[in-house]
Amino acid sequence: MSEIVEEIDADAPRHLLILGYGINFLDVSGAILLAEEARRRRQMGRRLYLCRLNRDVQRFLEHGDFLETIGAERIFHTEYEAIARIFTRLDPEVCRRCRARIFDECRSVPREGEAETAAVPAPDESRRRPLAGSV
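Above: the chain sequence. Below: its structure as tokens.
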């Protein structure tokens, strides 16, 4: 995982979301790695977020006090919740210049050169369905 994080850091993202639905087991060394990465990113002015964690993995993080280091407010049941929360922390000027527009929330930000009223509002959260198997 360390190599993957180093690759990701090459692009200098301020927010890193790990989708945990494939993590079925976490030992102490894995929990330490996540906690240290959260601490390291915080010191750099960046953040680590986790979502869709297996119930046992989340309990392990809670009982080992790793969750305190990671931050309980950075753990989400679904990626929809996580992205909606992270989106509020993004730099709107970066969003304005972005051409990808891969998240529903992106439509609420007008593109560079567009009038403010031209932006399409983000969809209503009540229309989103929770993902199967979410904690």
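Helices lie at 2-9, 28-43, 55-63, 66-70, 79-87, 92-97.
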